[in-house]
Fold this protein.
Amino acid sequence: MSQMSDTGAMDTYEAIISKRDIRHYTDQPIADDVMGRVLQAGRMAGSAKNLEVNRLIVVQDQAGQDALAEAGDFSSWIGSSAAIVGFASPQKDTRLFDVGRQAQNMMIAAHAEGLATCPVTLHHQDKARSAVGLPADWDMTMIITMGWPIAEVPDSPLKRTRVPLDDLVRYDRWS
C-alpha cells in the first residue's frame, strides 16, 4: 500500500521502494500535464559537467513504437505502451550515467503519478536511428516505456527478493 502525504501525493521514499518495472498497460493516453511533470523530472537530473547533452524523444504513435520494437533484442512488447521515451546522446559525448539518472527520475515521477514504466535497452542503433530520425552521429541505447497499468498486473517470472542490506553494503573496506 502506497503512503500518501497530506496533499495526496505519494511519499518520495515510498515511490522509490514500491516502484517496479511493468510491461502491461491499458490503452488510455497520458495527459499532457502528467507527461510534462515526468519529462520535467528527467530534465532536472544532474549532468556530468552540466553539459546536458542528452535529448528526450517521446514516441506516442504506433508506427514509431513498432519501429523501435525492432531495435531491441527483447523489446517486442514495447508497442503496447502509451508512450516511449528515448534517451538520445551524441556519440562523441555519450554519458550513460546521465541517461540512467534521467531515466530513474522519470520512472519514479511516473510511478508517483500512478503510471507504470519499464526500462529497455536498444541493441540495434541503425534501427533505433531510423525509427526516430536520429542523425548518424547520435545513439539511443535506452528507452523507457510508460502507460497506465492494467488492473491486474501479473507477477514477473523473474520475481525475487532483494539481497539483504547486510549482504549488499560494505563499510570502509571489502572485508
